[in-house]
Write a structure and sequence with these properties.
- The chain is α+β, with helices and mostly antiparallel strands.
- It has a single domain, classed as Hotdog Thioesterase (Thiol Ester Dehydrase, Chain A, Roll).
- The chain has three helices and six strands.
- The longest helix is centred in the first third of the chain and has 18 residues.
- The chain starts with a strand and ends with a helix.
């Protein structure tokens, strides 16, 4: 059994649609990005930590899959789980759920790297972050 943690709730607004009347791809990415920052906060990377140190995060790979069109007024939830973790990298997957039907509308898998903004090179996640991420990975694998 895998455990997904809710990282974002939202709604599709008319101004987020394209000329065909459904959610534009740019807004899928925007909503997944909001979920990403909530995910990082959940494992201990806060805005104040990022502002007060040279710690940085970079998305180095992103794969999106669109499964169900979303229309204005649709209410969504994004659920996230860690897929893989190392000292410097984390791979995680978001699922955007159409709340009324419970169908997966889209998925987004990302590979994030921790880096030192001053040295311009990868670095290990802080110990407390790595511990929280390991716990989340164990929970997502049903351990």
């Amino acid at each position: 059994m895998s455990v997904h943690v809710t990282t974002h709730f939202g709604v599709v607004y008319p101004g987020e649609t394209d000329h065909m009347g459904h959610l534009n791809v740019a807004y899928y990415v925007q909503k997944f990005d909001a979920a990403t920052w909530n995910f990082f906060f959940n494992i201990g990377i806060s805005p104040s930590m990022l502002r007060g140190s040279s710690l940085g995060l970079a998305a180095v790979e992103q794969v999106l899959n669109y499964k169900k069109e979303l229309m204005p007024g649709d209410v969504i939830e994004i659920r996230t789980r860690i897929l893989d973790l190392s000292e410097k990298k984390v791979r995680f997957r978001h699922e955007m759920i159409h709340r009324e039907s419970e169908q997966v509308a889209a998925t987004c898998e990302l590979l994030g790297v921790c880096f030192d903004r001053d040295a311009h090179k990868s670095r290990a996640f802080p110990k407390e972050v790595l511990e929280k991420a390991k716990a989340a990975l164990s929970a997502s694998q049903g351990a």
